[in-house]
Write a structure and sequence with these properties.
Layout: H1 8-16, H2 20-27, E1 31-37, E2 40-46, E3 56-62, E4 72-77, E5 82-83, H3 93-98, H4 117-122, H5 126-129, H6 141-152
Antiparallel strand pairs: 1-2, 2-3, 3-4, 4-5
């Protein structure tokens, strides 16, 4: 008999996707887990209907050290298995800020937000300045997904 040992960070993720906030988002059609190939997870997040635009975007999260270390994640193109190109990224004031495509160092693989590892590393003051939005070890992936869903369904979201 072989025993599979799962690292604590991966175990924590699997626990979180089987509970409250995550399952509520799935049940409401806000997001769905596509796959986990540790340390990566692909999650589709629904977006408001806009002309000539997708009704969901895929995020690829890198979760090493989760939840003690903040995840980092960016928009992902399932067809090419690579970062979503700028012309296919969501537009609008908040969406453009969150999913920067302007050359910011984490722009293709990270979100410009206080819940993203790369964002927090680039702006160490964000943990205090944006305490209500900043990642801390009591948060879970559902926290990030709820924030992303809000941006992709806001009035200022313009589609692609």
């Amino acid at each position: 008999m072989t025993s599979v040992v799962i690292a604590p960070d991966e175990h924590a993720l699997h626990e979180h996707v089987r509970r409250g906030r995550f399952l509520a988002g799935v049940a409401a059609g806000r997001w769905r887990l596509i796959s986990v190939t540790w340390p990566f997870a692909l999650v589709a997040v629904s977006a408001a209907e806009r002309p000539n635009s997708p009704t969901q975007f895929v995020l690829r999260f890198e979760l090493t050290g989760y939840p003690h270390t903040a995840p980092t994640g960016g928009l992902w193109d399932l067809a090419t298995d690579s970062s979503l190109p700028p012309e296919k990224r969501p537009k609008g004031v908040r969406a453009a800020q969150l999913f920067r495509a302007d050359g910011w160092v984490g722009g293709s693989t990270a979100m410009y937000a206080p819940w993203d590892r790369i964002g927090l590393q680039a702006h160490p003051d964000w943990a205090q300045t944006y305490r209500l939005q900043a990642w801390n070890p009591t948060r879970d992936l559902g926290f990030i997904l709820a924030n992303v869903h809000e941006v992709l369904n806001a009035d200022d979201y313009l589609g692609i």
